[in-house]
From TrEMBL:
Record's keyword terms, sorted: Cytoplasm, DNA-binding, Phosphoprotein, Transcription, Transcription regulation, Two-component regulatory system
Pfam families (alphabetical): HTH_18, Response_reg
Domain HTH araC/xylS-type: from-to ranges: 423-521
Species whose genome carries this gene: Blautia parvula
Protein known as: Stage 0 sporulation protein A homolog
Functional summary from the UniProt entry: May play the central regulatory role in sporulation. It may be an element of the effector pathway responsible for the activation of sporulation genes in response to nutritional stress. Spo0A may act in concert with spo0H (a sigma factor) to control the expression of some genes that are critical to the sporulation process.
Localization (cell): Cytoplasm
SUPFAM superfamilies (UniProt xref): CheY-like, Homeodomain-like
């Protein structure tokens, strides 16, 4: 089929032209649209369309300049201009540059437009016969995307029409060992950042070529870009083997190449195998059903669809969870407060929100049993929620739970090892942080000399008395910044700082922000406590 690019700055005109024409009647499809000349030129270089419909007056680059650039490439691309009556002098210039015809916007009927397209189609047919039947790989990618993927997604075109189109490009899908595999590139955003490819065009080009090379060696597959990080692989065979062995080898090689060259891992959603071409859309839907559970699929995993896939996924999740939670020294806690609720939830429904709530509730219980005094609980909860919110999948969430719970365990062990005098001093600080406190006062309270008290304080807690006191006061002030409308200087005094300037410097030392900057950046409210 011939690819058509529409360049027109008026959206209604673009939409009207695209919708009013039966493009398949002319063996054409619209590959893309542009609202200005510069974008049209970039899309032209990307798609190499056979036919360009372009307005003359457009922002950034007008139609005349676009036509000149296309003609400078030496390409025989057919060009039809979209013009208004007051553009006619420019239209004559365009005709001298070798356009095939023009469509008078707003006045030309659909029949007249189709006549112009019919003439262009006849010219393209002649050029195609002259060139022979060879097709550039980039054209094949576009055909797969606009014919095969469109059939699998919307059932338009029909299967017979889709297969017929592919045969025109010397592509035959054999009716044996049919399997679809949806590949999702993990860490896709990092890959975009690494290659400074926000639109993913360079990544798409690279991955399509790499995967095609691997498939060519096996001689049994096609690949089409679905969207963003997703690629669909279609496997087939001339003879019936009912074996996944060849497919497994291809997927393994793809994973190795992506890891070695891009340092990313893909995970796959694999359909059942069939010997019936008419079930292609069913196979694709199976992949999509698995893909809906992306949050629960392990990065780099190969996930197979079958009648028991939900049970299998549930068991995989619970097995990995038990293994990860072996780091805990309290199996009673992990079983009663985490594993059991997770198992009940996963057997009922795969819900990321429900799982997040289970991790949160379990952490609150663990914080109560193991954690610091009441004064620190808010900050621990806030940090844990921030970490959970950044998680992209179940396994990251599980790792964050373990990491934060282990910090609580460490703190609990440290406090258990503290001497009676230090525990007494800590309790005094928590109750009196809001007023002026001196080292002499606290050391005298616990019956130790100032020097000896400072020595054992540093030995048991790993920080100096003043450092600990300032950190505790800053943590208290952070809660007030989050939950009150008090001024910065009022908070400073309320937390035991006698000087607002010193408070500001100390706050930035511990948090990296000024008190006002922190207040603006706060996301969580007291409802999260």
């Amino acid at each position: 089929m011939y690819k058509v690019l529409i360049a027109e700055d008026e959206m209604l005109v673009r939409t009207g032209i695209r919708a009013s024409i039966d493009w398949e009647k002319f063996n054409m499809y619209v590959v893309d649209e542009a609202a200005d000349g510069q974008t049209a030129w970039e899309l032209y270089r990307k798609h190499q369309p056979d036919l360009v419909l372009t307005d003359i007056k457009m922002p950034f680059m007008d139609g005349i300049e676009l036509i000149r650039k296309i003609r400078d490439t030496g390409s025989p691309t057919e060009i039809i201009i979209l013009s208004c009556l007051d553009d006619f002098s420019l239209a004559r210039e365009a005709i001298r540059l070798g356009v095939s015809g023009y469509i008078l916007k707003l006045t030309m009927t659909t029949e007249e437009m189709e006549e112009v397209l019919e003439n262009a189609c006849q010219t393209l047919d002649k050029v195609t016969k002259t060139k022979g039947s060879s097709v550039a790989p980039a054209n094949l990618y576009d055909v797969l995307e606009h014919s095969l993927l469109s059939h699998l997604t919307y059932n338009v075109p029909s299967l017979s029409e889709c297969l017929s189109t592919l045969r025109e490009y010397s592509v035959t899908i054999h009716p044996h060992d049919l399997v679809t595999a949806l590949m999702v590139v993990d860490q896709y955003e990092q890959l975009q950042d690494l290659y400074q490819d926000s639109h993913g065009q360079l990544i798409q080009f690279s991955l399509l070529n790499i995967i095609n090379e691997i498939l060519a060696k096996s001689g049994s597959g096609l690949v089409v870009h679905v969207s963003g990080s997703r690629y669909l692989l279609l496997f087939h065979n001339e003879k019936e083997t009912r074996s996944f062995h060849l497919i497994s080898g291809v997927l393994s090689e793809i994973m190795t190449v992506l890891k070695n060259y891009f340092n990313v891992t893909p995970h796959f959603c694999i359909s059942e195998m069939t010997q019936d071409l008419s079930r292609l859309r069913v196979l694709y839907q199976q992949c999509l059903l698995l893909d809906e559970q992306e949050f629960f699929l392990f990065p780099g995993s190969v996930n197979h669809y079958d009648s028991s896939w939900k049970t299998s996924l549930c068991q995989t999740l619970l097995t990995r969870t038990r293994h990860t939670l072996n780091a805990f020294t309290d199996p009673g806690f992990t079983s009663g407060f985490l594993l059991q609720p997770l198992e009940e939830q996963l057997k009922k429904e795969f819900s990321s929100k429900a799982v997040l709530n289970i991790f949160y509730d379990s952490y609150i219980v663990y914080l109560h049993n193991q954690g610091p005094g009441d004064g620190d609980s808010y900050l621990w909860v806030r940090d844990f929620l921030q970490a959970l919110s950044a998680c992209k999948n179940y396994y990251e969430m599980l790792e964050q739970f373990v990491a934060h719970a282990q910090k609580l365990e460490k703190l609990s062990r440290e406090r258990m090892s503290c001497s009676r005098e230090i525990l007494q001093a800590l309790q005094f600080l928590q109750n009196n942080y809001h007023r002026q406190i001196t080292l002499n006062e606290v050391s005298g309270l616990v019956g130790l000399s100032p020097n000896y008290f400072s020595s054992i304080f540093k030995k048991e807690l790993g920080t100096s008395f003043l450092e600990y006191l300032n950190r505790y006061r800053i943590e208290k002030s952070m809660k007030l910044l989050q939950n009150t409308s008090m001024k910065s200087y009022e908070i400073a005094y309320a937390c035991g700082f006698s000087d607002e300037g010193y408070y500001g410097k100390t706050f930035k030392k511990f948090t990296g922000k000024t008190p006002n900057e922190y207040k603006k950046s706060c996301v969580f409210t007291t409802s999260n406590e």
